[in-house]
Amino acid sequence: MTDLVTFGETALRLSPPQHARLETADQLNVWATGAASNVAVAASRLGTDSTWASKLADTPLGRRAVSELRGHGITTDVSWVEASEARQGLTFFEAGSTPRDSYVLDDRHGTAIETAEPAELPMDDVQDGQAVFVSGETIALSETVEQTAQAVLRAAGGTSVLGLDYRPDLWSASEARETLTDMFPAADVLVANEDDVQTVLKQTGEASQLAHQIGSKYDFETVVVTQGEHGALVWHDATIHESDAVETQAVETTGEHDAFIGAFLSRRLAGDGISDALAHGVAAATLTRTIPGPVPTVTPDEVERIVDELDEGSPGNARGALR
Question: The Carbohydrate kinase PfkB domain covers which part of the protein (predicted)?
């Protein structure tokens, strides 16, 4: 029985090396990346039996994505379709350097997952697993996949986890808000970046206030708010748990949110309390910022070392309920 099942699209990301520009690059680095697969990779690398479920076109590019993910130790459960019926999603990413912003160009329409239905997924694993995860990044792709994602959350025999994962290049904030809030009743846990909470849910205030407002309003069991280089916090049982980040020289930040989720869920599924899981999530995110590319290729020893550093600073302290 798998511990964690994630469902979502994985695209191939093509990026020029060393902060080069797409329009002048003569070579591109390639990664298989998506919120669902990245979460599965992070959890798997930290010892959690993880399955990523998806639907892909049977092309060399689709097989390239699956081969890479299997190399990280996760189980891949893919429904394959004929190459003539769909295509592999692509994302072009150009890393910026202050004051130049990073640039993202998604080429993800007409992909196989847009037509994914529950019957094409490992629903027995969804029902038997300890947790399932789906993200807004995938839900944005079509009405069919939105309905399938909701079916996955509702069918979860264990904890159902929804990642807000807002991508403005895929849908508008108003579309995301309408769709995702309709799905909130099916989720036990919400994980979101602080900026996404403010943009999509139109909540204002400090991160701790945001988490409390969302948890109370939508009746979540747990609300996690990540804050990038500033750490993260968790609202659980009307109590706020917080952890600062460890200062790093950031190489790339695109995978840190997914790394946090994977590590946090890994430790919760292993029986850790909120504060310990929070520290492991922050540690995994911290390490991922030091690694080129979007895939969280962290190791348990590295994560534990950072957790020890966080313990020295007494992170994860709990505060009483906000009023």
Answer: 1-294
Structure tokens at 192: 């979101």
Host domain of residue 157: 4-9+36-55+73-84+121-319
- The number of folded domains in the chain is 1
CA 60 – CA 80 distance, rounded (Å): 12
State how far the Cα of 32 lies from the Cα of 243, in Å rounded to an integer: 30
- Reading the block at residue 11, the tokens are 């695209």
Task: Check if 258 is active-site.
Answer: yes
- Among residues 169, 258, 272, 301, the one annotated as catalytic is 258
Q: CA 203, CA 5: separation in Å to the nearest integer?
A: 30
- Residue 130 contacts by C-beta under 8 Å, 6 or more apart in sequence? 3, 4, 158, 159, 269
Task: Establish if 98 belongs to a structural domain.
Answer: no
CATH assignment at residue 183: 3.40.1190.20
pLDDT in tens, 117-134: 999 999 999 999 999 999
